[in-house]
Specification:
Blueprint: H1 2-21, H2 26-36, H3 38-56, E1 58-61, E2 65-66, E3 72-78, E4 85-97, E5 102-114, E6 119-123, E7 131-143, E8 150-152, E9 155-156, E10 159-163, E11 181-186, E12 194-199, H4 211-214, E13 221-230, E14 232-237, H5 243-262, E15 267-271, E16 275-279, H6 282-294, E17 306-312, E18 315-319
Parallel strand pairs: 1-9, 2-10, 14-15, 14-17
Antiparallel strand pairs: 1-3, 3-6, 4-5, 4-7, 7-8, 7-10, 11-13, 12-13, 15-16, 17-18
Helix pairs in contact: 1-2
């Protein structure tokens, strides 16, 4: 706005000098007066649209999740139903990825016309690295046609985008060649490949009687279904201060975690940002990654008889297999 005023005043001063040089002839003087009225005419023509747009306010939308490198569309439109006409709309967009430590600013984004269709900002840097990107809109205002007067606009809502890691197969996996079975425990409901033999007790199903073994004794022997007790698996993520290395670590973690979840194996994720989290399914994996993005906690954790799988910037290491 200040820039437009300086340009306007500069041109007006030049026209005034030009009129004075021609002894304020009627033609040059009329031209000067016409130009002097531009701000008032622009404001008069724009003011109804400016007031209407300001009363509605604005809101914005962005995709909740993106893959690394995918273009992000930030859509800006009226906060209430219906469209509004913006003679000029200016906004400063700030995209900050706290996990990656990056911040991108787009000052002075300008739009013209109706908000019936949302204004779209294509941000190619937003998904450069994994993390949660917080998007804020600052200095939102609607201007008159000449860009010399403005009314601030209310921004309603908050935007955040999770840039989720791609799956990359690591050079080693923690569930191959590991001695994981420490023992067995009773399984409620039956239907197991593992059994423990014990004397019959009241309430046992006759279907569980082991007739061949019972025939050798003077009492009934039943089969009690059992579940294997597995060694605890802990996946430790050695994150760094370099965004590209963290992208690689998380990509290998997601591949490993989904492979484990597909086998039905529970495990723990341990890292300096989110502490230790138990993971049983793909939803737990996603929540764990988002928690890593948003947390800075460093709690301690230890588990006995654990198999430790470490993912770092240089590769993977397995301990206690």
């Amino acid at each position: 706005m200040i820039k437009n005023w300086l340009i306007y005043l500069g041109i007006a001063a030049a026209l005034f000098v030009f009129s004075a040089f021609h002894s304020f002839e009627q033609t040059t003087w009329n031209f000067f007066l016409t130009f002097a009225a531009v701000p008032l005419v622009s404001l008069t023509a724009s003011l109804p649209f400016m007031i209407y747009a300001a009363a509605k306010g604005i809101t914005a939308e962005a995709p909740p999740e993106l893959e690394p490198g995918a273009p992000a569309e930030i859509k800006i439109h009226s906060a209430k139903r219906g469209s509004a006409v913006f003679p000029q709309f200016k906004v400063k967009v700030i995209c900050e990825n706290g996990f990656a430590g990056t911040k991108t600013k787009y000052p002075g984004v300008v739009f013209f016309g109706s908000s019936k269709k949302p204004f779209i900002i294509i941000n190619n840097k937003l998904s450069a690295h994994c993390g949660t990107v917080q998007i804020s809109l600052k200095r939102c205002a609607v201007y008159d046609f000449a860009g010399m007067f403005f009314i601030p606009l209310r921004f309603r809502g908050a935007l955040s985008v999770n840039v989720m890691p791609r799956k990359v197969k690591p050079s080693a996996v923690p569930f191959r060649g590991s001695s994981r079975v420490l023992g067995f425990k009773p399984k409620p409901g039956g239907f197991s490949d593992y059994y423990e033999l014990r004397p019959y007790r009241d309430g046992d199903s006759i279907k569980n009687v082991h007739w061949k073994v019972s025939s050798k004794y003077d009492e009934l022997i039943v089969r009690e279904p059992s579940l294997p007790v597995l060694r605890e698996l802990v996946i430790r993520l050695d994150l760094t201060e370099i965004p590209g290395q963290n992208d690689s670590i998380l990509s290998r973690f997601v591949y490993t975690a989904e492979a484990l979840a597909a086998e039905g194996r529970e495990f723990y994720c341990l890292c300096g940002r989110c502490g230790c989290r138990k993971i049983s399914n793909t939803d737990d994996i996603k929540n764990c990654v988002i928690q890593i993005y948003r947390s800075n906690a460093v709690p301690g954790f230890s588990v006995s008889n654990a198999e430790l799988f470490v993912i770092n910037a240089d590769g993977e290491e397995v301990y206690g297999a």
